[in-house]
Amino acid sequence: MALAKGLGVSLLWVVAGEGPMQSSREKTAMKPAQSTEAQSRQMDPQRLSAAIEVLESTLKLAGADPSIARNSDLLADYYELLGHTDPVQRARIAAVLNQRVMERVRSNEKVA
Known about the structure:
This protein is mostly helical. The chain folds into two domains: 1-43, no CATH class; 44-112, no CATH class. It contains seven helices and no strands. It has helices at residues 2-7, 11-16, 24-29, 36-41, 45-61, 72-83, 87-111. Helix 5 (45-61) packs across helix 6 and helix 6 (72-83) runs antiparallel to helix 7 (87-111). The radius of gyration is 15 Å and the shape is globular. Residues 20-45 are annotated as: Disordered.
């Protein structure tokens, strides 16, 4: 729920990938004359889609549960990563994220 609210998208879309990405209520709440700060917080659907694909494939390759709901913190980090334009910064963040994914896999193996 926090992910959907924070990104300004429909909870159904985040959880199941069904229905419109933004609910009609969220669409009408977005006004054309938004401040620069509000515009910078708007979610980029293409970037979100790419972040989901990267997260799911990374988790699958690592042998972990690819559930977005269980890994929403990682999704938010991948979304942020894809927003960086500096390739050096992106590489550093990606290395940290890969380490976190492996720690998640190891901790899940210990629980199981």
